[in-house]
Amino acid sequence: MKLKVVIHEEKTGGFWAEVPAIPGCATQGDTFEELLQNVYEAVEGCLAVDVAA
Fold it and tell me: Which residue positions in the chain have pLDDT lower than 50?
């Protein structure tokens, strides 16, 4: 599955990202690598909640 992820860089450092196709699915990370890992976990968690609902 491919999803568009919009990544934002914080002025104070770090990053945050949102997945427009999944309302409310967003995460953050201090580094870009941490953000990528958190995005995978956030999408997995958001989809798990959707299936359970």
Answer: none
Give the chain's length.
Answer: 53
Quick one: pLDDT at residue 10? 96
Tokens linked to 23 = 């309302």
Helix (H), strand (E) at residue 35 = helix 32-52
SS3 call for 41: helix
Phi, psi of 6, rounded to the nearest 5 degrees:
-100, 120
Give the closest residue to 5 by CA, choosing from 34, 49, 45, 39: 39
Residue 28 burial by Cβ neighbours in a 10 Å radius (0-12, 13-18, 19+): middle
Kindly report whether the global pTM for this prediction surpasses the value 0.90. Answer: no
